[in-house]
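Everyone, carefully examine this protein record:
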Amino acid sequence: MSRFACPPLLHGPWTRALWSPLLRAGAFGALRGGHPGYPALGVTVPVPTPAELGLALERLTGTGAHVTLLCPPALARTAPDLLRAATRAGHEIAGDGLTRGAGELALLQTVAGQQVTAWRLRPSERNGAALRTLAAWDIHPLPPALPAPEPGGTAEVSPADLRVRLDDWRARGYRPVPVRELPGLRTATPADLAQHVYMRLVEDRFSAQSHLIDLTQRADGVMRIAPLDHAPPPLPFPPRTPTAELHLHSPRVVGLAARSPLTAYRAHTRSWGDVARALQTRPELARAQVVFGVTLLFGPLEKAGFTVAELPPLQAHWYGLGFRLLRLAYGTARPPSEGLPKMAWMTREAFLARHGGAGTESGTGPGD
């Protein structure tokens, strides 16, 4: 795994804000995560005390799941038997918190009986000395845990909540694994930092302003939907007709397509059931009479029952520019099937008649 140099000396409280972007860009060999086209989810469990380590092992027994246990070096002295039991059970031991030096790292690895290759440092614990010590031992800073699960990402859970969360993730099509077993696990690059900044500054702001409803709770869910109080042209309906605009979860679609176009197509097809259920259950969408989206994928949508309409030339070129920016932001090298986007639409009644019974069975996902 490649690394790039970091500024040699950073001092003072103001520098704490710099560590997060530096690590997101791969400084000190920081990990980014796995391939976003697979349903694997790296699960980390903080176990700061022997009691919590024991509870985690107890809750994991019989689940068939293996996780990454975040272990302070002190556990090598206070809970050696539990560390060895964790290794025998197939769990990954990762470090947690500040270390006093190479001696503690060596003791943790020796007692656990496995090589420690990853470590978590909280924002308040990050400093050049600590990160250089880890790098000297070829230990990689772990990626930040995500607030919601994403394919190829990491999620943190307390020992007490393990069983409930594991059941929930599996029901949504995720495959919980230790971080080291994420398919395509790699170190971060500056491009990952740029993508993160784009998502926070552009995607998140657009989602908030558009009141987007997220329909990606399943591991291969790719749809989002926004309620509108009007029918934009070229929809052939009165201007004040309530509508619902479809949007794709771009990073997830790119990941699925990079793995396999067929996998992406199946995920897209399964997601129609999510849209139908939202139309039937979400109060914000109760009045929507038309479902529409502006897309380059109008061919598959036409096969799914949508009517395709040409956009005005200026509008089509404007949307086309936006789609090209998305492709740059998410790093897809796959060329679009069509040059300019079009609008695809279907009435609410027709959509529910066609897709209202679409299956979104538990456990189906990009791994099937």
Summary: The CA atoms of residues 254 and 332 lie 6 Å apart.
